[in-house]
Amino acid sequence: MSIQIFILSKLMEDNNYPYKLKKQLSEPIPLDELGGLTESKLYYHFDSLAKKGLIEPVEIIKEEHRPDKQVFAITDKGREALPKLIYKMFEQAEGIKDMVVGLANMKYVDRDQVVEILEKKLKTIKDGWERISHFEQVKTGKESETIREFLSGYLSTKTEHTIEWLERLIIHIKQGEI
């Protein structure tokens, strides 16, 4: 989904073709490699978006001794779908790392709606932690003590870290900084 949001957001700015977007992703930081985005994946997502009617080919650039470049534009249906895809991304995200493309495209969504989604996610995490945090007080036999302490420390640290950064993110969005 994040690749398709990336493509649609780039096409909101200007018509484009897959190879050019791939090149933009690889410079100056190789984000394409870090995200495992191959050229074939990018072409696949362009094709998928075109089949859904969210983008359409508008031009073919022909260059001597080079493959033809099919230029795409976003459709009205694509403009309408982009915010919905971004909201869905925030809803399905398991962590902030899964929200990066949505955060980079906040200009296409209602900030209050994103905050609402994130606050709901934060409440779910806090409620879940409240239910299982008593795990630290569970008495176990000597053979299980080390694993209980390890898991308790790991889960506690991870959950507290997640809550802290999600709270910070919500504040930044509310203040219009992201």
UniProtKB/TrEMBL annotation:
Native source species: Cytobacillus solani
Protein name: Transcriptional regulator
InterPro entries: Tscrpt_reg_PadR_N, WH-like_DNA-bd_sf, WH_DNA-bd_sf
Domain of life, per lineage: Bacteria
Transmembrane segments: none
PANTHER family, per database record: TRANSCRIPTIONAL REGULATOR YQJI (PTHR43252:SF7)
Signal peptide: none
Pfam families on file: PadR
Domain Transcription regulator PadR N-terminal: 7-82
